[in-house]
Design a protein that fits this description.
With 225 residues, this protein is an alpha/beta fold. The protein has helices at residues 6-16, 25-43, 60-74, 90-101, 110-114, 137-146, 202-207, and strands spanning 51-56, 78-82, 106-107, 119-123, 151-154, 175-179, 192-196, 221-223. The longest helix is centred in the first third of the chain and has 19 residues, at 25-43. 42% of the residues are buried.
Length: 225
């Protein structure tokens, strides 16, 4: 299985959403978020980890988190969302509305939210992030680095270099759900590692030599390690 560089991950996304690929961003986000929620059920049952804090960033990774929160609610969990920098794009406004209609609370303080959580979903930064971590996400990531609550990261742990891994100032999740294909920086990840995003056409997978594992049955996720 190929581990993707940042550039290759971006190229695959562009191709998927091109006229040749036929996907829209909201389709990919829905499938990604659904697979994240399903992966959580495999390792963290709602009976023990019912209160899930979804930390959502301002971009597509945050959108994946909002979708996952909605599905987790339908799966019997009690998610809460920390979404400090909301996007003005209609797609994200719709995701917020969908969560609000399910009475999923939106919190304001990472410190207070962690006090009432059994599990954290890190959907802050994805594979396209680069540069310095700015407020308020610097404080959020600092608190996540120090919590004993298990963390599930979406695609790449926030604060990690997409290709080089944890530079020392990233969080250390217990579980990672890679999307489309795992990123190079996650090659040495030691926790529960799942792959989600069951939407890659065979021709595209062959073109980029992804060598993806086979998803069992109707599952939307497959174990990597």
């Amino acid at each position: 299985m190929k581990f993707l560089t940042q550039q290759l991950a971006q190229l695959i996304d562009v191709e998927l959403m091109s006229a040749a690929g036929g996907f829209s961003i909201d389709q990919l986000m829905e499938l990604a978020g659904f697979s994240v929620a399903q992966a959580i059920t495999k390792v963290y049952p709602s009976e023990k980890y019912n209160r899930v804090l979804v930390c959502a960033g301002p971009g597509n990774n945050g959108g994946d988190g909002l979708v996952a929160a909605r599905h987790l609610s339908h799966f019997g969990y009690s998610p809460r969302i920390l979404y400090p920098k909301r996007s003005e794009k209609q797609l994200f406004k719709n995701l917020v509305t969908q969560c609000t209609l399910l009475n999923i609370p939106f919190g304001e303080s990472i410190t207070e939210e962690l006090k009432q959580s059994d599990l954290v979903l890190d959907a802050i930064f994805g594979f396209s992030f680069s540069g310095n971590i700015r407020s308020p996400f610097d404080q959020i990531i600092d608190e996540l680095k120090n919590t004993e609550i298990p963390i599930v990261s979406v695609d790449i742990p926030s604060g990690w270099d997409v290709e080089k891994g944890n530079p020392g100032n990233g969080i250390n999740p217990a579980m990672l759900v890679s999307l489309t294909a795992p990123k190079l920086g996650a090659k040495d990840f030691k926790g529960h590692h799942y792959l989600g995003g069951r939407f890659i056409p065979p021709d595209l997978a062959n073109k980029w030599e992804l060598d993806l594992p086979k998803y069992p049955g109707t599952e939307q996720v497959v174990v990597i390690s």
